[in-house]
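Pasting two entries for a bug report.
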Amino acid sequence: MSKAPNYYIVNADALPEIFRKVVEARRLLDTGEAETVNQAVLLTGISRSAFYKYKDAVRPFQDMLHGRIVTFQIMMKDQPGILSHALNLFAGSGANILTINQGIPINGCAVVTINAETSGLRGSLQDLLEQIDKTDGVLRGEILAG
């Protein structure tokens, strides 16, 4: 029998509320919105024991990818300037682009795969994906691997 994986990717809505609150408490501490664990747990409505029990076991997906190489796939219209704008979003976010691969456009759409190193990322991967998705001419952006 094979060994079970150590990590799972689970939609936050499927998790017990305590896990989401522990993640929020960690965020409050990391951002300085709470100076102590006591403040963080009071603000989130959890006990200190619950915080300490789960603090090292639960973290947002983007934190797991921070400082790693992440593969993005973007489907965009085959129009001048769209790829350039998307690349500027990466540069502005602090991500370091390692490779860019654009497929031949088919039916007016092209798929671009970008590998980026994310240790210098200012903000979250989710923020970057949202900016890419809002770009005029981008049909879809997603993370393939990280």
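Entry 2 (this is the one that rendered wrong in the viewer):
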Amino acid sequence: MSRLSIVANVHARPGQADLVKAELKKLVPLTRAEKGCINYDLHQDNSDPAHFVLYENWESREIWEAHKGGAHLREYMEATSGKIDKYDFIDLTYLD
């Protein structure tokens, strides 16, 4: 199994950045505590406060796939339903 890196871009809808930020921040300690999570770092774009970036490293794709089905992610999705303009993920294989 090879290590997996994910760069997730989250763009909040106008007026929703504070709510989305608060919900994303709730995910950080819960996700970092998951088995196989190497790091899970949340960032906010300095020029666009509605744009958030998660930089994640996982021991394997299988572990990340299991993470995506976790209860705390379902709760996040419910809390931010209709508040996100778009998501995009960059899925990377760690080389060195």
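Dev reply: Rendering is fixed now. As a check, the viewer should reflect this: The longest helix spans residues 17-32.
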